[in-house]
Amino acid sequence: MKLYSAIITVGVTWSLAATAFAASGTGQAFYGDPPDDHHPWCVHDWNRPQPKVVAPRPVSELEPKARPPADAIILFDGTEASLAKWCSDKNPNEPTKWIVRDGAMECVPKSGYIRTKEEFGDCQLHVEWAAPSKVEGEGQGRGNSGIFLLGVEIQVLDSYNNPTYADGAACAMYGVSPPLAIALRPPGEFQYIDITFHRPIYKDDKCVQPGWVTVYCNGVLVQDRTQIEGPTGHRARTKPGPLPEKGPLRLQDHGNPVRFRNIWYRPLRPALPKGGVRGPLTVEATMAKRKEIAAMIRKDAAKHAGQQPAEMLRLFESVVYEKDAPTSQKAGQLAAQYVEGLKQLPADKLAAKKDEVVKVSDAFKYLAKFEFIPATFAPKAEIEKLIKAQGWVQAKGKAKKK
Ligand code: MG
To answer: Which of 45, 121, 281, 399 has CB atoms 3.0–4.6 Å from 41's, for a disulfide?
Structure first.
């Protein structure tokens, strides 16, 4: 009996799977590029686990956050005027043949991909799309479009009750990474997609910082800092390589009248040309940046020339970023003069400078602690002596509260 039900179960499972295969219309095995040393699945592999289905967040929760922030660059706002920001992808001199209807732009099948005239790179991107409410086609043939950032496709597909190969489902990085979940509303309703995109950084043909993409679908995390190896493709394994520094946003015509609205982006800080950017920088990039900061502070110190202790403190501050013997020497001389000046002040004038003097003493303690000045720096000892004599006792290097 047990054996019999097992056979039945296997039979049912197989027939369901077979239905799904047949429904895919794109073949099953022997289709996409085979596994390799870093990818255990074929491209578009039906053996790859299907994403779980998650109920999406209600529109009422998402809608306020979907409004473009003040610095967003609007790519489409539902008007004909904003459609003019797009053109044919194949012939960029020609306007798009996609149409605006009810505040959304709609793909006109066979009219071709479209692209923005605007070009950009690393970004935060918001897109809303809706698959046709009239359900037609199966698998990749139902409500298919795509959001292309520098050649990387974030899949647009009506994956609502519509299985396909996992790496081709809605919000997949197409052919590379299935979404963590299917969090779609039914066809006809708008899906709210939020993307953070960072291209990989190459230096001398070597990837010094991988690119990655994070995607939320209707408020549900579906790509979690997924690594970008290179441009995505159909059936073909992604070839690791650099992406252009910037390019247009492209939307796919896959033969389905998918609708789009409320498209905006915010450029994200681009990569520094020398070495990495996110996380620890390379030694070269760090030293270059420190030099730049030190120069900025010294320039500011020059504005305070003759005003002590402002000039002296700014000069010392610059040394924290970049050691520079002449600057240290000059700051040291100004410090000695400053402390000498304090000693000449009548008691009431000195008392009025209490906060300033304590601040300078704290600065000296910091500079000595991190060895930017010698522990034996004479003005440091003198100012501490003066503070003690005044009874302005400091606790743990911090000025005592008034
Ligand atoms: Mg597509």
So the answer is: 45
Note the pLDDT of residue 38: 86
Residue 203 lies in a domain: yes
pLDDT band at 234 (very low <50, low <70, confident <90, very high): very high
**CB distance 242 to 227 below 8 Å:** no
Report yes or no: 324 and 318 within 8 Å, Cβ to Cβ. yes
Residue 260's pLDDT band, with cuts at 50, 70 and 90, is very high
Q: How many CB atoms lie within 10 A of CB 254?
A: 19
β-bridge mates for residue 6, sequence order: none
Q: What CATH number does residue 74 fall under?
A: 2.60.120.560
Per the rule left: phi > 0, alpha: psi between -120 and 50, beta: everything else, 71 is alpha
| Mean of pLDDT values over 317-333 | 96
Decide if 31 is inside a domain: no
Count other C-beta atoms under 10 Å from residue 180's C-beta: 18
| Rounded distance from Cα 153 to ligand 1 centre (Å) | 7
**pLDDT band for position 127 (cuts 50, 70, 90):** very high
Span between the terminal Cα atoms of the chain, in Å: 87
**Is 95 in the same domain as 192?**
yes
Ligand 1 mean position to 305 CA, how many Å? 62
For residues 36 and 313, the model is more confident at: 313
CA distance 290 to 321: 5
Å from CA of 138 to ligand 1 middle: 13
Residue 202's domain comprises 48-267
Cα 19 to ligand 1 centre (Å): 22
**Cα 243 to ligand 1 centroid, rounded to whole Å:** 19
The reply to whether 74 falls in a domain is yes
Same domain, 197 and 135: yes
Where is 331: in which H helix or E strand? helix 325-344
Residue 339 or 203, more confident: 339
Question: 397 — phi, psi (to 5°)?
Answer: 75, 0
**How remote is the CA of residue 177 from the centroid of ligand 1, in Å?**
14
**Omega before 49 cis (within 30°)?**
no
Q: Quick count: other Cβ atoms within 10 Å of Cβ 311?
A: 20
Mean pLDDT score, 103-131: 97
Residue where one domain finishes, among candidates 234, 267, 300: 267
Asked whether residue 114 is assigned to any structural domain, the reply reads yes
